[in-house]
């Protein structure tokens, strides 16, 4: 089965036989897959009236477990945005009733951001929709193939995530 990347690689091999274009065979497919995944994610989130950044913040809080709260600093670490951006995001989510700010009992000057029941429901529903979209993308891959692919991708991405080993 030939795909668009096969045609692209063949054209480059014909036009630039002096270059090793082998990386394109993997990374062009990863890039194309990322575009499809981005579309699927946006669709899943839109069905629950969420933007991707809203999903990221809400699910960071949801994954924290009961009582579903984190400090703004912890949210920064998980979402990789600046403190100004996070403040803006928390403000917007609070205005929608999806999170609330509470005083941090261990730090008089600190605050905690807590998921509201509506925020928790919206995060849970959006996650279920996302997983449905992602299963469709994985298509006919067997459980074993999915595991092999996950292991290979982990090997490629781990250095970027600062994971030892």
Automatic annotation (TrEMBL):
Gene Ontology MF terms in the entry: DNA binding; DNA-binding transcription factor activity
Domain HTH marR-type positions: 23-158
Key words, A-Z: DNA-binding, Transcription, Transcription regulation
Entry-linked SUPFAM superfamilies: Winged helix' DNA-binding domain (SSF46785)
Biological process (GO), any one: response to stress
One Pfam family hit: MarR
Taxonomy, superkingdom: Bacteria
Protein name: Multiple antibiotic resistance protein MarR
The organism of origin for this protein: Streptomyces hundungensis
Gene behind this protein: marR_2
């Amino acid at each position: 089965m030939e795909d668009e990347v096969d045609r692209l690689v063949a054209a480059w091999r014909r036009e630039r036989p002096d270059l090793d274009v082998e990386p394109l065979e993997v990374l062009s497919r990863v890039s194309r897959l990322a575009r499809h995944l981005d579309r699927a994610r946006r669709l899943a989130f839109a069905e629950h009236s969420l933007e991707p950044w809203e999903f990221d913040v809400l699910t960071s809080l949801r994954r924290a477990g009961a009582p579903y709260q984190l400090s703004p600093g912890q949210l920064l670490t998980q979402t990789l945005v600046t403190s100004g951006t996070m403040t803006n995001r928390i403000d917007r989510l609070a205005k929608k009733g999806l999170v609330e700010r509470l005083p941090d009992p261990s730090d008089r000057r600190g605050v905690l951001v807590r998921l509201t029941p509506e925020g928790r429901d919206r995060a849970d529903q959006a996650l279920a929709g996302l997983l449905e979209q992602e299963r469709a993308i994985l298509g006919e891959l067997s459980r074993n193939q999915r595991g092999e692919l996950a292991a290979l991708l982990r090997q490629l991405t781990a250095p970027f995530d600062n994971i030892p080993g």
